[in-house]
Amino acid sequence: MLNTILLAKLPDLNAWVWADYRMAVLFAVIMPLILLLWAFIRRIEVIQRLLITYWRVSSLLAITVYLMIAALPVGFMAAIAARILIPVGLWFWVDANEEIQEMPASPLKTCFTSWRWAITAWNLIGAVLFLPSIHCAFAETPDLLQDQSCLGWLEPTWMYREIFHPNLNPQFLGLLGLAGLIFYVMFFSYFVVIKLKRYGRSATSY
User: Fold this and answer.
1) For 114-130, what is each residue's pLDDT tens digit?
2) Which residues contact 44 (CB under 8 A, 6 or more apart)?
3) Which residues does 48 contact at the CB level (< 8 Å), separation at least 6?
4) Looking at the 3D structure of the chain, how many domains does it have?
5) 82 and 129 in contact (C-beta within 8 Å)?
6) CA-to-CA distance for 27 and 35, rounded, in angstroms?
7) pLDDT tens digits, residue range 63-114?
8) Selection from 64, 66, 68 nearest residue 83 by Cα
9) Which residues of 39-62 are buried (b: 16+ CB within 10 A; e: fewer)?
10) Which letter does DSSP use for residue 30 in this model?
11) What is d(CA 156, CA 30) in angstroms, rounded to the nearest whole number?
C-alpha cells in the first residue's frame, strides 16, 4: 500500500533517480573533496576529522554501486543504510559540533556548514523517496530485472560500468562489492561494539 501511494507521487521515477545520481557526484564527491583540501590548506583539524569520517562512512555508497552493477538485492539495503549513516556520521560527534560552533566566522566554516546541512537534507529526502523501491532488497535478481522501480536504480550503475569498467564482468564487480560490504560491516561492528563504548561521541578519539 505504501509503495503504491509513494509511486503515485513519483510519476517519473527514472528522472528522479538520474537526478539523484547527478546530485551524488556533486554533494557526495566533488564538494567534500574540495572542502577536505581547503581544510588541510587552512589546517582546520576539526573539519578535517569530520570529513575523513564522512569518507569512511560514505564508502558504503561506492560499495552500493558495485553491488547494483551485478543487480544484487543487498545493494538496495546498502543504499538505504548509506542514506541514514552519512547524516549520523556528520552530526554524531558532540565535541566536533561544539568546536565548529565556536569557530570564528570564515568562508570555510560557512561553506562546510552549508554543505553539511545540504548533504543531510539530500540523504534524508532521498531515503524517503527510496522507500517505494525498498522491496527490491528482498527480491531475487531475476525479479529485479523485471521490476521498473528496481531497474530505475540499477541503470545508472550500468552506465558507470560502461564508462569505468567496460571490460570487467558485472558478476566480478558484484563480488568486489560484496567483499567491500563484508569489510565495511566488520569495521562498523568493531566501532559500535568496542570503540563507541570506549570513547563515546568524541571525534577526537578516533
Assistant:
1) 999 999 999 999 998 88
2) 103, 108
3) 36, 39, 40
4) 1
5) no
6) 11
7) 999 999 999 999 999 999 999 999 999 999 999 999 999 999 999 999 999 9
8) 64
9) beeeebebbbbbbebbebbbebbb
10) I
11) 18
Task: Show Cβ contacts of residue 148 under 8 Å, excluding neighbours closer than 6 positions.
Answer: 13
Angle between helix 107-130 and helix 94-102 axes, rounded to 10 deg: 140
Residue in 78, 96, 75 with CA at minimum distance from that of residue 86: 78
Domain enclosing residue 41, as ranges:
2-205
Residues 6+ apart with CB under 8 A from 204: 49, 95, 96
- Residue 205 pLDDT: 62
Residue 194 C-alpha cell reads as 568496542
Scan for cell 583539524, then name that residue.
Answer: 45
